[in-house]
Every structure is written in structure tokens, then in C-alpha cells.
Amino acid sequence: MLAESLPLPVCSHCGIEFPTSDLVSAKMDGRELSFCCHGCHGAYLIIHGAGLDSYYRRPDRQAATVGDPTGSHFDPEYLNQFVVRAGDSSHINLIVDGIRCASCIWLIEKALQQRPGIQSARVNFGTHRLLIEFSDSSISAAEICEYLARLGYHCRPYSPDELQKSADRERRDLMFRFGTAVFLSMQLMGFSIALYAGYFQGINPQTRQLLQVLAALVTTPVILYSGFPFIRGAWFSLRNRQPNMDLLIALGSVSAYSYSLYALFNDLEVYFDTAAMIITLILAGRLFESGARRKASAGIDRLLKLVPSRASRLTGGEWISVDSQQLQPGDIIQIHAGESLPTDGIIRSGEAEIDEAAATGESIPVLRRAGDNIISGTLNLSGRLEIEVTAAAADSFIARVAGLVEQAQARKAPLQRLADRVATLFIPLVLLLAIATFFYWGGGKTGLLHAITVLVVACPCALGLATPTAVMVATGRAAELGILYRGGDILEAAADLKTIAFDKTGTLTTGRPEVISCHPADCSEIKLLEALATAEAGSHHPLAKGILSYARQRSIAYQQPRQVKTIPGRGLLAETEQGNLIAGSRLFLESQGLTLPEPSGDHSASEVHIAQDERYLGYLRLADQTRPEAKELIEALHKRRIRTLLLTGDLESVAKALTEKLGIESYTAGLSPKEKADILENLTDHRSMMVGDGINDAPALAAAGIGCSLAGSMDIAVENADLLLTRANLSNLLQALNLSKRSMRIIRQNLCWAFSYNLLALPLAASGQLAPVYGAAAMAFSSVCVVANSLRLKRVKLNDA
Amino acid sequence: MLKSILLLIFLSFCIGTGVWLFFIYAVKKGEFDDIEGAKYRMLDDDDDDNEKAP
Are A378 and A408 in contact (CB under 8 A)? Predict the structure, then answer.
């Protein structure tokens, strides 16, 4: 009487499999459609009604978010504070939750634009901010938010704070300076090429004079406007007596510039191009950096967004929706299934399974009941809860984590660049030499001329290129392999690591429980699996998914249960054609009056037991499997004398077992996010890396020398990662370390080369033997060599251990 | 000779200034605020209107 395995229906909107009992079917254009809930049905109707069906055919679409049938309720008064009115049209900034792929953005924009009253809607891909222009008379902000919620995207109003505004201004300012420098440098190049050609082939003195004057005119704003940040930095560094890269740049460009001005009036060769090029190239580098920093701050925004902005509070015997910022300790709020917690609290009544992945990184939901503490940002999966608030939203767990991350980001001293270190040694040397030259030539005009030549020749052109070109080629190569470095300093730091700390769940393990062994009592393994798969068919519990995927692997046929009753955190009772099934934990089955064999005492895996019509069938053991490449990676790291650590919020016994299995040197278990960060902060050697994927790892990622995240991590972990592996494969980490090592070798070669050139040219210049134009030619040649050397990174082998 | 050089220099300066002003305008308009998006939007064909038409 075994039925064939019935394929589970797949939701036409969100694309997930769901139990038949939840089916919502609808007929549309003669096609039968099935949905897993009314929310998805509603979202489909909106999309279909707007003529946007092509959303479902987009190749880059990932599973859609589940629509909210009620559309949630937004407080119009609260929203109206954020609406900016200007004449007929108003606009509002929203932060949108639930965006996973480019298709989501496409859908949001198209769907909104088709609503009457909305003039434009545009989502920023980097920050998930949505700017809507609408006419206030025909649609309200609250209606827009409800419409989005029905589509499955929750949003909250957003107004940029002062810090963000100033960061945006700074970036814009940098862009103006850079754009101006590029424009003027291009003009300058034309004049310079003509002047160089004139030097070698002869030129009409009048034309030469004209070109020189024009060159001076276009260079002046580059030095004084575009180069102003460097001149200011150089001034500060002089005042603090700490030579830095700014000083070297300012010195090189200003001395080249002033020498050229001097030359202009004394009928000598000018080098305005040298001065302008230094500034233009280095501004380009700064611009890239600021982009990376902007991403990091957007991450904190999105973390705070995990917390719902509204909460339902008990006020005078009634449930009233309030802004979650207004919640105070002692308030009673209610949380329905599917909602996440606005702040920390204690459960007063009700019990439910809570997905605490946000807080602990654990993928398996835990049962929480009256009296238990419950953390903000976690998700209520089943049942209604009444919760007594214990912390105002501003002091909640999520807010504290965001605070920690912000602190760590600010505290993390910018890694001293190799060139910066070089500058500290090099600058005093050059200055001394220039002064010595001046006095050696008896001061006066000749002395000044030779002294300035020394400064021009010392100008760090090749030196300036040595690092950025290598970094550019290396990061390009890395991107092909699925490795993203957040900046050149990360590439540098990754080459010289002493300690790597790993998170457990989702990093060293896959984060999905898998069946590791079958223990049938007095029946066949097949029979046991059949019964369990039938009972668990259609459950979304991670353990059930593990069991079902194992059953499919073994091609076990299973049916849909007729009726299922789930007891959160314990198990389920299923009525099937094979009889009544009871599946769940040992305690659950015992509480149902069954006698089970003695427990094995091994707690490293979860057990799922099953009984059919009062007859005990046996159990399966499931565990979160380690990634297959993890052991190899740890061995390779040890071979390089890198210390390995395991930092986890999980139990001591689990951490110990994993540590032994993979050969990790030491472990610390039961850690809170702050403790994780503290451990990394307190390492004696700061050349450290943290590899993690959860919100609870975010502070540690920011505190470590390098934070590394894998694909599929939580947003905040990704944003705080300096190094991101876009393929969830740990062996990429080894490639990243190899590439860093190679890049650093190339950079050292480049610097070596640039220096030998400087060392050779400096004495010649000091002794007055070098005509500056030959110096400039040698400089160009040396730059070409540096670029060519950097290009070698495109082809180095990276797979050797 | 010098005259034509001057003319050409002036011409290139004008073109350059035009590009520069365009850049300044683009920054002010916020074209560089979302540099990620362009690569995705490019792939969106505007054939939705055709689909709606019978």
C-alpha cells in the first residue's frame, strides 16, 4: 500500500516547496497556480496585475520574499515626518528590507512606477535606499509602504544623520578635486608633449615660451585646488613632526612646481607635468578607498533594519501599534509568528520556536517559553508570544552589536602602508641632501637650482605607482577567483598573518544538519527512513530538511501525511496512511508514554526518534557537517606557522570535538559577540584574521586585523569583511593568502627598483651632473618597468600550499 | 603658424572645459552615488511595454 512519493507543490511566487495542507490555489488565464500562503498569492496578483510577469523569468532572480497579506500597518503621522514637500511633488527616503538580487530592485521600481501618483522610484544598489517622488494628493507615504509590504518588502523611513551627510560631502568634494585634476592634466599633457618634442627637435623660442606659460596656467589649480588635501596633510605632519606619505607627495609636487615656475622665468626646461601627475594618480587611489568605506557604514544601517520599526504594545487593555523606539522596560508587547523582535525581553506567556540565527549563528531554532529571555532581531517561527520588554530599543542586543561594530571600525588604526613607512625614512634623508646640496654649492642661485633638482629627482613617481598598480592587478585577478579585497592594505596585511580565528557554524561547517547515522530499533533502515520522511514531509525545520534530503538521496518513497500537529521544539504527531507517527526528541517520545533504549551519552549530534502506532522504530542522528576542505586548509595554515583558533558561541563539547577533528590549535566556547571581539582585540600580535558569517561575528570581524566572510553570510558580516570569498569554499582563503604573498613580493621588487633609480639619480643631481630632463626621461622608463612587473601577477600560480 | 596653434589650443581647451562641466553636473546630480546599479539596469530590456500590448 506504499504510495509513490508525491512531489511537494512548489509555490508560484516564492518558489519554495511546501506541505500540501497549506495550499492556496488560484486559477488565472486558464492556468492552475499554487501558492504556499495568502501573502504569496497577494504578491503574485500585484505583479501579474502590473504586467510585470517577466519578473518570474529573470535569470538572476533568487527566491522571492513572502508577501504580507495584510500589508502591515504603517502610521501615517510617523511617516509624514519624513516626507519632504516641494511644490506638487513630495519625496521620501526609505530603507528597504528583503532585497536579495537585482530582480528585486527591478520589481520594486517597476511596480511602484506603475502606481498612479508616483513619479519616480529609484533604489540604490549599494545601500538599498529607495527614493520615491510622488504627488501627495493622490497617494500617501503609508499607502506606498503598505503596497511594498504586500509585495514582500518591508521598509522604514530613513533620514541621513550628520555623520553620513559629512561623509557624502567629503566624497563629493574628492570627486570634484579628482575630476578637475584629470581635466587639467589632459590639457597639460598636450603642452608637455610639444615641449619635450621641442627639446629634442628644436622649437621656436616664442612658441616654447607660450607653451610653458599655458602649462603653468593649467598646473596651478591642480596644485592649489586638487592638491590642497595633500598640502594640508603635509602641514599637519610637519607640525606633528611625523613624516608621512602626504608630506612626500606635497614635497614632490610642490618642489617640481616651484622649480618649474623658477625655470619659466629663467628660460630653462619646465616639469609641470610631473607635479600634476603625482596629484592626479594619488587622488584616484583615494577615491577607490572612500567607496569601500562607504559600503561599511551602509552595513550598520542594514543591521539596525533587522529590528521592526513598529511594535504592538498593551496599553490600557488594548493592543496598540507604537514606534519601537518608544518601548520602555516593563512594557508588554505581543509578537505573532513570522515577526521578529523589536527589542530584548522576557516571555510572559506563550511558547514558540525562535530562530536565533541573528544572535547566535545557530541555524536550528530553539524552543522558548514563559520566563525565557529573548533577544532582539530573532525571529518568532511559531505561536504568539507576550513579552515584557527589558531594554529600550536603543539598548537592545542589535543596537549594542551595531555600536560595537561602529566602535571597532573607528578604533581600527589604518594599516600603515609600506610606502608610508618608506616615507618616514626617505623624507628626512632627501631633505638633508637638498639642504647639503644648497650649502655645498655655496648657497645662492646655483645652490637653489641644484637643491630643487634633488627634490624633483627624488619625487616618488615610480614609488607612487609601485603599490597601486600591483594592488590593482592583484585585486582584479582575485575577483576572477571569487575573492574580493576591500583595499590594498588588506592585500598587504593578508600576506603576513600570525593568527586566524574561525567561527564554527556556517564557516567551518556547512550550517545545514545532515544525517550521519541510522539506528533502527527492530525494523529495517528503509522502514525507519520511510516513516520519518513521511512524518517530516513538508516541515520547514532544518532537521526535517536534512532528513528529507537524505531520504531523497537514498531514493526512499514517502507520502504526505494527512494531518500534522507540530509541538514546537519537541516534535510532531502525524496521521498518515501508515498509521499514527510520533517523531521528535527523546524527551518528547518518552512523554508520549514510549520506552526508549538507554541514551548513548554522546551529545555531538541531534537525535530524531520515531514511533509508529506505539511501536518504537529507532532514530537518526544528524549533525552539522564540517566543510570538506576545512581540514586541508587548517593543515596548510599550520605549515605556514599560522596559529588557528576556534571561537564559537556553541557548547564546549561541540567545540572540542570539532577542534580535535580538524586539528585546530585551541578553542574558546560559549562566547558572546563582544567576547569574540575582545579575544581578537587582546591578541598580543595584531596580525590576525577572523573568518565568520553571522551577525554575532560582526564585531569580531571589525576588531580583527582582517575580517573575512564567506558567500551566504549575513549582510552585516559581509559589509564588515575586509576579505570576501564569493564562493562558499574555504580553499579560496588559501588562494587569497597566496596571492597576497605574491603581490607583496612584486611590490617589494617594484619599490626596490624605484629606489635604486632614486639612489642613483640623487647623487648625480646633488653633484650638479644631471640635467633634469634626463632625470624625467629615466623616471618615465622606471615607471614603465614597475607597471610591467605588476602585470606579472596576472599569471602567477596560486594553488601550491 | 603660431596663430593656428593658438586656435587649436583654444579649441581643445573649450572641448575639455565642456567635458569638465559635464562631469561637475553629473556629480552634482548624483550620477556617481550608485555606481553598482548601472551594470544591472543595463540588462533590463525595456520590452515590458511590448509584453503588455496584445
Answer: no
